[in-house]
Amino acid sequence: MAQKKKGKSKARKGKRVGVVSRNTTERTVCVRQSAGTDGEYLVVNLPKMLSASNMRQYDQCMTYRFRLDVINKETADCTYTIYTLPENWYTIGAIRYAAKMYRTAMKDELEVSGGKKARWHDFRPTGITSLENAWIEAEPVYSNGDAWKLYATDQWETSDVTDSDGNTKSFTLWGTSNAYNIFQEYRDYILGLRTEPSAHETDLPYEGLQPDVKDMDELMQDYSLPPYSANFQDGGNDDGGSTTPAALEGQLLKRQILLSDSAASVTTPLQSDWINAPLGLVYVKNGANFSTSTPHLAIECAAGAYKGVNALRIANG
User: What pTM did the predictor assign?
Assistant: First the structure.
């Protein structure tokens, strides 16, 4: 009996995981002001909203790429000013260092549990609404055709640790009330690494050209300090408040302003450019109070390889 000729088995072709994720991800979420609150300062927590709308966890310590869409016109002309945390090394470093110290604080607990953590565990700083202008966290909503309804969130815990005095502390972006300010702690860490350079003498360059020693001294003095605050302090307030420099903490950078014309057609598209948001935090200031019923804004995340959206990891949770 003739044997069948053996051949290479063909691997089953399938779609790439990244493509599947992009095709099965809701990347746009409508937002409104929380019921019972009035204000013109709104903060959108993108990973929290993506988790609720897609029913899977999106990590906090990522930089998410988004744009803002105006989906309903206000009754009067208004402006939407968009802010995010900066993407400089100081901000990213502070987040990474905070996540590292959180993992260090949990080292003993992880050894006892055999390295096991709760399924939805993640490192999440808090204090996103504890700002001078009383930013209020936005609500994610969807429409059932007749009314706007809230997305449900079973739990969204922020990260806490216990200090040497037995006090429970969180990790915050602003302030220090029962919390570690991640920017101030990172500042102290960097300043603690510095050492004064030892003085040393060298031969003058171009010997024989008779350089002026006074000019050389001035040259060294002019460049003896960095072109930024070496102690990581701000320049003091210029709006009538204290002019005393304070430790540099969470900064907000103005990214773009959208002008909403109440008389324009509702079909006229109004959206921002694509913007990067560290920690997925988007701050929007309105020229008037945000609505607590009908959402006027929607946040759209760019498509990408991280669970269907464009997001780059800053630190592991």
Answer: 0.79
